Amino acid sequence: MHFVKKEPTTEEQKEQKRKEREKKLKIFSAARDRLFDKRQKGELDEEVLAISGQLLQKNPDVYTFWNIRRQALILISQKIAAENSDDEAKRDERLAALYKEEMILTEACIQENPKSYGAWFQRGWVLERTPKPDYQFELKLCNLALRLDERNFHCWDHRRIVCRLANIPLEDELKFSDEKVNDNFSNYSAWHYRSSLLARTHPDPDGRLPMDESTLAKELGLATNAFYTDPEDQSAWFYTSWLFDDQHAFAEGPVPVWVTVDRKKSTILLVMSGAVEAKTVGDMIATDADGEWIPADSQAQSSQVWLFKSSSLGPATKVTLSYKALDVQVEDEWTDLDAIRALLAPANPEGSLKTALEKMLASCQELATVEPHNKWPTFIATLCMRRLDAQANHDQILSNLEKKLPELDPKRAGMYADLASDIRVDRFLLDALAEYSPVPDTLRMVRMELTSLGQLHLFAGRLTQLDLSENRLKSVAALRRLPLLEYVTLNSNEISSLECLSDGMDNLEFVSIASNGLTSVQQIADLKKAKKLGRLVVCENPFCDDKEQLEELRRVFGDSVRVIPFWL
């Protein structure tokens, strides 16, 4: 109690407490050892439930005890089912009694520690198996736990399980999230729960938005009110950034945008609008040729670019692209330039969505003047401008990403630089589509301040020559998505390794990586695996001034590659 003098603890009292702790520890250790011994012997019976129950009430966070307990429950429930195979009612009654005891235990453990992952998981596991679940009680328990701590994500997860098992209408849960958000705009868990519900209750029929336009407009308005009420709280800002998620390209999922058939090299290249797995590719492209589909993204199970390697793809071999109503035989090349344009420049919004975005933009711009050190108003304003009209707002968007935001939020300067690069690349590719017909096989993307390559892979079906000199690239892993590349120039960047170009780049003949600050030949040694590489320019890298490194360079690449360490 306050203002009550604290009595000093005597040595005798300290010794007494120590002995009590030792006694409790011995009891706990003996029970634990007995539990482990029974598990090792396979004696997963009622005694295991009794021992583990006592231990878990003392410490519900020992996940191993819960694991052993589940193993015992499975065996005991199987035994009950076998003994009552002819009497379903009796079987269910005994199982219900067994699981009721488990629910009592987990409730006690949750009261001991409301954030016990093991206890919440066990409760959900039991709920899925009990013959007579009380879903209303579970919802009340969740409500109680959330009143104690609205951020208890274990409880939120359990609530999702209850709603799934009880088939509770999503609209009811959406109303629940309404209440939680309105009670406290800072409740990020409620915002997150809301995001998962709206995508299912109000899906966008075109699949391009996280939800339908009218609902999205309302959510933007709700988020605007929330962050305007408390600009320092990040919950509504994070939710708003999710509303700008642009991973929704087409309602039907990833669509094919490019197919290139090279009968001389016996390969087929497929470019998709989004990542897909090998089975999807095999169902989409039919051919009589033997071979296998390989993802451009190394060992990834899904990829946006796939390469079919064959030894029997001759002039008369049929290659058919089948997708939805599309069924076309591809001789050399097939492209959907409209789909590519839609990916590079989504359509500008109209109606209520446009109005909501304009209102949010105005609010963010006002907040940016009131809260000059807060990054969020400027960042969300930038996303608003990009969604409203990326082309018209191009310069202001880049100014925010490359100047203002790195000053406000230096720890995420790299993220802003990558986002700006993606925007620059998209704009460059759009201009190339407008200026050239057919799509060029050579691109010169020099002095563009690039740190990433955005959606450059959309041109993978044609691109064979690429100049990325005088940018700020630290990695060129994205070039793996351009397997037709033959010539690539990477001079004056910040690249430290070319390992990503060693496998899968079977067409690579020329690489120039001058002036990149490379200090060791080992940083580029993996290039020797590129089967067709004939010339390699490494001028003006520090290792070129080291005689031992030059000897290593000759040893690594031998006579098969003409290595140029000095300008002629």
User: What class, by secondary structure content?
Assistant: alpha/beta
- Tally of separate helices: 18
Count of domains:
3
Strand tally: 14
The backbone outline, from C-alpha atoms, is globular
- Largest sheet: spatial strand order: 9-10-11-12-13-14
Keywords: Prenyltransferase, Repeat, Transferase
Catalytic activity: geranylgeranyl diphosphate + L-cysteinyl-[protein] = S-geranylgeranyl-L-cysteinyl-[protein] + diphosphate
Organism: Plectus sambesii
Protein name: Geranylgeranyl transferase type-2 subunit alpha
What can you see in these coordinates?
- The chain is an alpha/beta fold.
- The chain has 3 domains: 25-243, Protein prenylyltransferase (Serine Threonine Protein Phosphatase 5, Tetratricopeptide repeat, Alpha Horseshoe), CATH 1.25.40.120; 256-335, no CATH class; 439-564, Ribonuclease Inhibitor (Leucine-rich repeat, LRR (right-handed beta-alpha superhelix), Alpha-Beta Horseshoe).
- The chain is built from 18 helices and 14 strands.
- The chain has helices at 11-41, 46-58, 63-83, 88-112, 117-127, 135-148, 153-166, 170-183, 188-201, 213-229, 235-243, 278-284, 337-344, 351-370, 375-389, 394-408, 413-435, 547-557; strands at 256-262, 267-277, 285-287, 291-295, 302-310, 319-323, 326-329, 333-335, 442-444, 465-467, 487-489, 510-512, 535-537, 562-564.
- The strands form 3 sheets. Strands 9-10-11-12-13-14 form a 6-stranded parallel sheet, covered by helices on one side. A 5-stranded antiparallel sheet has the order 4-5-2-1-8. The chain has a 3-stranded antiparallel sheet with strand order 3-6-7.
